[in-house]
Specification:
alpha+beta; Alpha-Beta Plaits; two-stranded antiparallel sheet; about 15% helix; about 90 residues; two-stranded antiparallel ribbon
Amino acid sequence: MTYTIAEPCIDVKDTACVDVCPVDCIHPTSESDNFENVNQLYIDPEECIDCGVCEPECPVEAIFMDEDVPEEWEHFTQINADYFKQ
């Protein structure tokens, strides 16, 4: 399992989750060159250690464990993975 960032993050990109992630698996960071070019943050499924510390930090409740992603946002699991294949 891993965590997924879903639709509520779009155009919000609050980086509180980035700040608490112990393995730096949430991208892009606000210091990244492409931060302004994306509309949400993404969790790298290969790097995520399923610790869950990011979930309560999200002010818009956009982070879900894969198995808990609401049905209407299930496609965000693939969107998160695809971001890291670019």
